[in-house]
Amino acid sequence: MNTTPGATTRSTAAVKAWINENFIPGSVTVTPWPLLPGGTIIRDKEGGEMLVFLDMMTGKVKWMLPGEKRKRAV
Fold this sequence. Notes:
The protein is an alpha+beta fold. Helix content is 22%, strand content 32%. The chain contains one helix and five strands. It has one helix at residues 7-22; strands at residues 28-32, 40-44, 49-55, 60-64, 72-73. It has a five-stranded antiparallel sheet. Strand 1 and strand 2 (40-44) form a beta hairpin. The longest helix is centred in the N-terminal third of the chain and has 16 residues, at 7-22.
């Protein structure tokens, strides 16, 4: 677990900014998923979902679809 002060806030802010840049407001629901820094599950109206988080090694927002084992860099 990362204990750096403000790390969680920065992670969450980075993920929220990415979501706002890539989705139309109101088109998805956003649910926190605290197992990863900034971890957020995004669901669309058809039931599709993805996990978005901040990769602490690279400092980049990454995402995964259900069943994927590889992270996708953004």
